[in-house]
Amino acid sequence: MNPHILILGAPGAGKGTQSDNIVEEFGVEHVTTGDALRANKGMDISHLGLEYDTPGEYMDRGELVPDEVVDEIVETALDEADGYVLDGYPRNLAQAETLASMTDLDVALYLDVDEDVLVERLTGRRVCEECGATYHVEFSPPEEEGVCDRCGGDLYQREDDTEETARERIRVYEENTAPVVEFYDERGDLVRIDGEGSPDEVWADVKDAIESNA
Ligand code: AP5
Ligand code: MG
After folding, report:
1. Contact 89/176 with Cβ under 8 angstroms?
2. Are 185 and 169 in contact (CB under 8 A)?
3. SS3 letters for 30-45?
């Protein structure tokens, strides 16, 4: 059976960057609520009678999309996956309990990065609109500005990567998701990884942690 990997960390910690490496090395599915929601930002959720009528209205404010919307996305994706790296979920304790009822994890990785570094990473991030590859204008620039090295697609900046929304996302993370890290720590499933080295240095530690735990 392929490994069941959870990757935790603040906005900009490098979850997406390292998930790409994990997919390539271990052949698992990348299950990511952020990408799934971005592909469905305008989805009509008005029948749920919540504060806003689409996921995008929560996302562009840096708030969490309600649990009933994300729980369903994750359940469907995990059902279809033979081995996965789960990125962006769970983001609060209720989601962590829901996840425990859906699947068993082999390892929970936590990428530890300081807040000042996070804001710099988020505001400089660029993403390929064709293949989703992630760059940074300073830390991992493409060979040609604005063009994806991998597929030649155009690079864009995420709407929630303005400094103001990035700071709000970090605040929401501290309030809701930091307790999730403790939840896995208390269960003994957590492996802490220093996320402040270069992407390759972080990857070496991530790979080791998976090989010795999964
Ligand atoms: P989501 O897409 O999950 O965003 P996030 O958690 O804020 O995380 P990011 O994708 O911003 O960061 P990352 O850790 O993947 O960093 P990356 O590798 O790109 O969620 C977006 C929104 O969707 C949420 O705000 C919420 O509204 C909603 N949502 C999603 N899931 C939800 C849920 N479960 N419940 C409710 N709502 C939900 O790296 C960042 C940058 O740094 C890049 O430019 C990269 O090149 C660079 N970088 C990476 N590693 C390094 C390194 N080691 N050194 C230098 N630079 C690096
Ligand atoms: Mg990401």
Report:
1. no
2. no
3. EEEHHHHHHCCCCCCC
Cα 105 → chain centroid = 16
Strand 125-128 to 155-156 pairing:
antiparallel
Query: Which top CATH class is 4-28+82-213?
Result: alpha beta
- List the alpha helices (DSSP H) in 47-114: 55-59, 67-80, 93-102
Under 8 Å between Cβ of 168 and 119: no
Residue 169 binned pLDDT confidence (cut-offs 50, 70, 90): very high
pLDDT tens profile 173-202? 999 999 999 999 999 989 999 999 999 999
Q: Which atom of ligand 1 is nearest to the CA of 34?
A: 2
Residue 24 main-chain phi, psi, to 5 deg: -65, -40
Active-site annotation holds for 91: yes
**Is position 171 annotated as part of the catalytic site?**
no
Instruction: Give residue for tokens 């403790």.
Output: 182
